[in-house]
Write a structure and sequence with these properties.
Blueprint: E1 7-10, H1 24-37, E2 42-44, H2 56-70, E3 76-80, H3 85-98, E4 102-105, H4 115-128, E5 133-137, H5 139-142, H6 148-154, E6 160-165, H7 171-180, E7 185-188, H8 194-199, E8 204-207, H9 214-225, H10 229-243, H11 251-261, H12 278-293
Parallel strand pairs: 1-8, 2-3, 3-4, 4-5, 5-6, 6-7, 7-8
Helix pairs in contact: 1-2, 3-4, 4-6, 9-10, 11-12
């Protein structure tokens, strides 16, 4: 499957049962809500989420289950975050075997690779597979900045096609567009900068709170691309307190609480994560409850392709 790398790509949460096994029935219920809202792809194994707690067998199960469930309606992307080039190449091969449509690729984990080493890492993985690749550029959380000069070196690999832009520097969208035109599709990776990034020319949105609010997320994107920015902004301003739950160390717990509130998930997380307690739990629940009480009606909008 070719990937358009445009639109809304949910970084979906992993659902667990009370017995700490994958809750595939609940997982598929959430996927159905995403598809019904009109998302453009599904991303599995978000590194700031619970991917690091999953076994290789569980990752494979999630990919295979999602691929079978979406039945070709949208691409299924799996995240790769490995410590070695060898491990990343093996993960890419397994992703293809399991039916994934593409990869979201981070720089090497733990080791602080140089620019030269990071480019070589990306290049070796790209050469090992024909799956489309989106580079995840998040120096805030992972301490490695993929610079424009590094992207210049990666232009020779045709299957490196997109970037999840999480530098928190809005002007980086413009810098990428000025230097590379449409060579790389740019997807905003920070919920609280999504509309701003779309206004700067970003092609899509890798979203977090979409897990609980898929229709609102898709509507904001479609309105922005239709040039109906005032309408998009009105919904976005309502959404912002919820979106801020994604830029938090407990983002998984926060998003799962929101999923519970709308009937699209459970609060169950995998240890060492634990459900929120005390004052913080009350704070997050109030944000969710206040937002649901003022949830806006959504306008009709033509689908942007």
């Amino acid at each position: 499957m070719t990937i358009n790398w445009k639109g809304v790509y949910p970084a979906v949460t992993t659902k667990f049962t009370e017995n700490d096994t994958l809750d595939l029935a609940l997982f598929k219920k959430n996927i159905d809500a995403q598809l019904e809202a009109g998302v453009d792809g599904i991303i599995l194994g978000g590194t700031l989420g619970e991917a690091s707690t999953l076994t290789e067998e569980e990752k494979s199960t999630l990919v295979r289950t999602t691929v079978a469930h979406v039945a070709g309606k949208v691409p299924v992307i799996i995240n790769i975050a490995e410590q070695t080039t060898k491990g990343a190449i093996a993960a890419a091969a397994k992703a293809k075997e399991d039916g994934a449509s593409g990869l979201m690729l981070l720089p090497p984990m733990r080791y602080a690779a140089t620019d030269y080493e990071t480019v070589a890492y990306f290049a070796e993985i790209a050469k090992s597979t024909d799956l489309p690749i989106m580079i995840y550029n998040n120096p805030v959380d992972y301490k490695t900045l993929v610079t424009l000069d590094m992207f210049e070196e990666l232009t020779q690999y045709e299957n490196i096609q997109a970037v999840k832009e999480s530098t928190r520097d809005l002007s980086n969208v413009t810098r990428m567009k000025n230097r590379f035109g449409d060579r790389f599709q740019i997807l905003s990776g920070v919920d609280t900068l999504a509309l701003e990034s779309l206004a700067m020319g970003a092609d899509g949105w890798v979203a977090g709170l979409v897990c609980a609010f898929p229709r609102e997320t898709v509507t904001i994107f479609q309105l922005a691309k239709a040039g109906r920015m005032e309408e998009a902004l009105a919904i976005y301003r309502w959404f912002l307190p919820l979106l801020e739950l994604d830029i938090n160390a407990q983002l998984v717990q926060n998003i799962k609480l929101a999923e519970v509130a709308v009937g699209l998930g459970s609060e169950t997380v995998r240890a060492p994560r634990l459900p929120l307690i005390g004052t913080e739990r009350k704070r997050v629940l109030k944000v969710i409850e206040d937002s649901l009480a003022s949830r806006p009606a959504l306008p009709e909008v033509e689908v942007y392709q």
